[in-house]
Structure formats: C-alpha cells, structure tokens
Amino acid sequence: MVIAGKKLLFDPFITPNELAKGIDINNIKVDFILLSHGHQDHVADVETVYRNSKAQIVSTFEVVSWFSEKGLENGHAMNHGGSWDFDFGRVKMVNAVHSSSMPDGSYGGNPAGFVIQSGEDTFYYSGDTALHFDMKLLEEEFNIDFAFLPIGSNFTMGVEDANRAADFIGTKKVIGMHYDTFPPIKIDHEKAVATFKEHDRELILMGIGETINL
C-alpha cells in the first residue's frame, strides 16, 4: 500500500505461499513493514524484505524485539491503545482476538490490529481476529473509509462475522484477507460477495499481485 509516497507492507507471507509463487520477493521494496502478530504465515518474508530495503518494522514490543535479536534493528515497538505519528500518517494499535507466537515457538506477545490515519483516508487493518465488541469503539473514534478484514473462518472470523465487523466499525467497504491460502480457509467467492451486498456493503477480493486504488 502507498500512503503519502511511502510504501507499507502488512504481514508478508509470500515465498511459502503457493498462491503467490509468481511474485519475486526480491522485487519488493518498501518503507515500512507492519506486523499484526508473530505467526509464521505473517512474518515469513520479513527478513528478506527488510534486508533488501531497510524498511522499518512496526509491531508489538515482543515481535520487534524478536527481529532485533536477529539483527533487524530498525524497528518501532508499540502496544495496544498506543498511537504514533509516522511520516505517512498516524497509527493506533488496537485489540485483536487471536493468538501469537514466533516461528521458533517463542512468545509473540498479544495480537493486534492497526488504524491508520493519513491526509488521504482512515482505514482499519484488523490482522487475524475474531469478531469482538471492541470494534464498536473504532466507530466512535474514527471515520473508517475502508477495512481489511479476515474472512476465511476456522482460524479467524468468517464472512458472516466480517460483515458484522464492518457494521461495528461503520464502513461500507471491506478488502477481504486470510482466505484460500490453506484448505481449511477456502471460501465461496460469489457467496461471500453476495453476503456483503445483501447488507449494502462492498467486499473486494483481490487477485494475487493485483493493484487497486481505494
């Protein structure tokens, strides 16, 4: 994602992902890597992208510390409820209901999501999460233009709960994520889009490598 001329990458899981085998990780150059939690399918390509571009890692204290011990020292640690002004906009770390551990099994802190405010838009990147009532607080504090929400079920909320989450945060536009990568999270695309349309909301299902303007 490009915001105010800065390139942001969220939870990179590319080289181990069979669906993304056509993407060359070495061609990805970004300014910031935002990590919602420490699971392998969210941090697999952090080290390669970091070393290719010296991007700053933004995540929880535990995740940033883990990467720092591996020599990736350009990190900005945050924790739930905290906000920070970066040169692309303001980031607030918010709650997620999930789990978190690092690829080596060490403690990964608590999972998180991000609300990002810039001069262009305000959006919510939920990370992996279940539906939870704290999402209602986001509508009270922010005007969310769009949200990235997981829809694959099994490990996170599914389509129905993501639709309710969109209602909780007060947005009409959702970019679906965390689906189709593994057999337990494969979804019916047409049914998912129709479910959101029934509630006068738009669900965007991006293709691998696709670029869109929001």
UniProtKB/TrEMBL annotation:
<protein>
    <submittedName>
        <fullName>Protein YtkL</fullName>
    </submittedName>
</protein>
<dbReference type="InterPro" id="IPR050114">
    <property type="entry name" value="UPF0173_UPF0282_UlaG_hydrolase"/>
</dbReference>
<dbReference type="InterPro" id="IPR036866">
    <property type="entry name" value="RibonucZ/Hydroxyglut_hydro"/>
</dbReference>
<feature type="domain" description="Metallo-beta-lactamase">
    <location>
        <begin position="27"/>
        <end position="179"/>
    </location>
</feature>
<dbReference type="Pfam" id="PF12706">
    <property type="entry name" value="Lactamase_B_2"/>
</dbReference>
<dbReference type="InterPro" id="IPR001279">
    <property type="entry name" value="Metallo-B-lactamas"/>
</dbReference>
